[in-house]
User: What shape does this take?
Amino acid sequence: MRRTRLIKVILFAMLFCSVMKVRALSSYEHVLFITSYDNSFPTVSMQVDGLKSVLNMDSVAVDVEEMDCKRFPQDENVAFSERLSFKFRNLPYKYDVAVLADDNALLFGLSEQQGLLDSIPMVFLGVNNMHLGLEQNKNPQVTGVTETLGMSGTIEIMKKLFPNSPRVIAISDGTVTGRSDSMSFTSAATLAWADYEILDLRVLSFDG
Assistant: This one.
């Protein structure tokens, strides 16, 4: 008899704590931070710290989700979408805003604008694809800032350091950021250097 009563007390206490936790969570503003990479990438922790530094963390909760696209390319990684979808179905709250860090996260956010992130305002940062970023000026659900590398200035310095070089060679890869940087390099090099070449690691191997 005593054991049954004790079990009932424990169950009631657990239920009460769960209800109070849900109520506490619902009193917060909830921010979803999606990073294109993982926490070992040097800019991720700085981005998260920067975001938290301008938020009132007494009333705001930030959930960080990592796409890890440096190791698992976005077009091959369905696990991230499935995991996030599972969390959305089971979380006791909805997000007030989604912050999208770097190009892959923005592309994911746009692909889910009518899906997981439907009606959730989105703010992007660190995006290299200037054209894609500027296109969002027409998107009432999305705003943000792009990231420029100063490609023209870099090429000008190269010309000063190597004035007799007839050709400039750039090395790029097949990541979303790499493709965006290649476009920026092409635009700048076309204006500043008559002869240039891009070595694309997507079509090269260590065997040559």
Q: What stands out?
A: The CA atoms of residues 113 and 205 lie 37 Å apart. The first strand starts at residue 29 and ends at 35.
